[in-house]
Structure formats: structure tokens, C-alpha cells
Amino acid sequence: MAERKIFAGQRVRRVRLGLGLTQTAMAEGLGISPSYLNLIERNQRPLTVQLLLKLASVYKIDLDALQDEGGGLAGRLREVFTDPLLAGEIPGDQEIIDVAEAAPNAGLGLIKLYRAYREQAARLSDLSDLLAREGHEPSIAGTRLPIDEVREALERRPNFFGRIEDAAEAFSTQLAPGDDLAGALKAWAKSQHGIVVRTLPVHAMPNLRRRYDRHSMRLFISERLSPFDRTRELAMEVALLAFKTEIAAELDELALSSNEARRIARFELGRYAAHALLMPYGAFLSAAQRLRYDIDLLRARFDVSFEQAATRLTSLARSGAAGVPFFLMEVDHAGNVIRRAGAQGFPQAKFGGGCVKLSIHSTFAQPGQVLVDRVEMPDGTIFLSVARSLEGPQAGFGERIRRTAIVLGCEYDGAEATVYGDAVAGASGTVLAGTACRLCERQGCLARAEPPVTRPLGLDEMVTGLSAFDFQ
């Protein structure tokens, strides 16, 4: 039998110390010299199959423990160092593997510390939401990444930017695109800035949605995108050129603290401006009211996607010409929140969006279907919710990409103005939801995933409730 050589010095040393043996004592048990064992522990000699078998027979050691290359621990450490706060601290995987090999206990301690940090951050967020719901603004804020600062700034304010809306309506009137908005935008980019727009195949631009080449004055858009998203990328580039002054003025009012946050916010305002170009405010509001906010009919009327039309509905907040005050949340199939927005800000304190009962989580099992619910929160507030999965970029065979879904909602007194309100009017199947498990005090909830932070656990050996987390 061919002899397989394994260098596992750190693991042999860990086993020896765990048994409380000196090098001399272990070497005697294995029938080798202490100096040879010393060389093994320093990875200067291999641990042969014969020695593995002897370790197993003499010291009753699980061979898997010796042959494990630290992959499990290294994988968990890799997850820690992908956190945005630690990204870039370790240049490659080899250092993580070295830590897992050389200091596994220190690695486990780091993982426990990181999990405790995440748990405390989640609790702090929950308590901040609870204080905000009761009218108390926390005076101490944790360290925020630039993207978190931007999201918070946009979620708490109305999703309406008047300067951009006015500029977009004036631009649309002057452009007069007729039935070919994409063609008109391409012609404007070419005539005003010398920019030529091209759609590139996946192999030429595998990792980008769009790219503007300043040297050749060409805008490249990926063929992965749907025709609707390609038009939005084009409209976004035009908006960033045509509405530079208006976007800068709205950006200044956000009062962000860093250049990186401003760069991220400028991108978000550019996308907002693109929607304003694709669906000019006055025309879109008029159509929305006539069609009773039917998103599918609106997307057909303006030749946009479901997501684009739904997002536009959250921005109908012009003084004296406002629509139903919708809010929107987008999540992926793992439950990660991608974005939130609302005509009056996102109602985090009342609606939350973290309840598993919400139909947005069911849309992934029913792709393309519009799911409508009447949702009642613990405080008695009732919302209308409209949820649907989104298609996203085109994936190739074998590619696993993130799919997302959106929920569009409004307080129930606005439901009668919509076609969706008719579907749940007087419905007996009201969904009893909550803002999030940690903030919800509904008793006996079969969907509960965590106990509420506002109540002590009610553990009773004699009585077990329906929920996995009973509380007093």
C-alpha cells in the first residue's frame, strides 16, 4: 500500500497537550524518538499512515480530527472577515487557514465574539426601533457604514425630490419622445454629449450592468438586463448629465457626513431621476388615478417593469397633487432587506416588514403572481399589502443569482382608491402580523422565530404554548 504523507504538526501538538502528555511520553507510546516527534509537530516530518493508525489505537483518537484541514473553522472565520467592518483586513484565504491551523481556539473565540457583536447590534437596533415607536429618539448612535447612513437618510424622509421632478417634466416636454423614449434618449446623448450607446454580450461585460467609457464616449449596457432595465440605465446616465445641478442640490439637503456616502446617494438620486424621466409626474399620477393604481396596467402604459412602476408609486407626494401614500420594501429570498422607501418615509415603527407572515416571503414560491393581503398589526393599524417576485438580471445555465421580491403597501384607508382594495374588502382572512418577532407581543404565534425583547420568557415545565418562545 502506498504511504500517504500528512503534515499535521499543529493538530498532533494540540492532541498531545489535550491529553496532558510530554513529547517524551507520547513518543514512547508511539515507538518513536522524542526528537522525531518534535520534528513532526514542527511540520518538518510527515505524519504517516502507520503513525496515524498507532495514534488511533494507543490514544483512541478520531482520525478525522487529525486529517481535517481546518476547513470548517476556516469557513466560519471567512464569514467573519466578510463583514463590511473587517473587509480588507486580510488579503487572502491563506492567512485565515493559517489561523485555523495554528490557533484554532483563538479562532473559535473570535467567532464567538463576532456572533456576540452581531447579537448585540441586532438588540440595539430593536430597542432603537422600540424607542422611536414610542416617540423617543435615541441620542447614542452606533458606528454606521456610508451605505447605512444613506439608507437611513432616504428611508426616514418622503421619497419625493421636487427639483428633480420639475426638471424631468420640463426635459420630457422638450424631448417629445413619442412612442420611442429609448431612441429619443440615445439621440439626445449623441447630439448633446457625443455619447454612443451599445448593448454588450455577457462574455464582453460579465460583471457589470453598465459602463461609461469617457475616452471613447460610449455607454455600454449589459444584455443580461431586461429591455426595461436597459432603458432605465440609459435614462439614469442621461439624468446624471442633464440634471446635474438639481441632483447636487437635493444631495446637499441630505447632509451626509462623508464623500463615500454622497457618492452612494448620488447614485440613488440618479435612479430616482431615471424613473422621473420614464414616468413623468403629472402623466403618471393622472394615469394611476384613472387606472386605480393597477401596477400591471401602469407598467403597460409607460412601457416599464413591475418594479419600476411600483417604485414610482412611492414618489407621488407633490404638494397639492399627491397620490395614495404608498411605501415599498424589497427583500431577497434569504430575507435580507435591499431597500425601503415611502411617500411619507418608510413606516418602520408601525409596519416594520420583518414578519414572516407577510406575503412578500410567499412570492418566491409563486413567481410572477401578485399577492394581496389585508394586514393587521398588534396596535390595530391595518395595511393593504401588494407583493410580487421580481425577475432580475438574466442568469446563464448553472448560475445562482439573487432573486428579490417587493411589497408595496399603504394604510388601509387608502385601499378603496385601488383595485387591490376591492380584492380584500370585507375579507375575513386578515393577516395578523407584527413589525418583527423581537418587537411583537402576539401570544401563541406559530410563526414566531425569536422571543420579544420587551417581555421575559415564561418557561413553565407544566405548560407549553404553541410558540417555540413562550413569554410572560
TrEMBL record:
PROSITE patterns associated with the record: HTH_CROC1 (PS50943)
Keywords noted in UniProt: DNA-binding, Transcription, Transcription regulation
Family: Belongs to the short-chain fatty acyl-CoA assimilation regulator (ScfR) family.
Alphabetical list of Gene3D superfamilies matching this protein: lambda repressor-like DNA-binding domains
Species: Neorhizobium turbinariae
Pfam families: HTH_3 (PF01381), Peptidase_M78 (PF06114), ScfRs (PF09856)
Membrane-spanning ranges: none
CDD domains, per database record: HTH_XRE
Protein name: Short-chain fatty acyl-CoA regulator family protein
Residue ranges of every copy of the HTH cro/C1-type domain listed in the record: 12-66
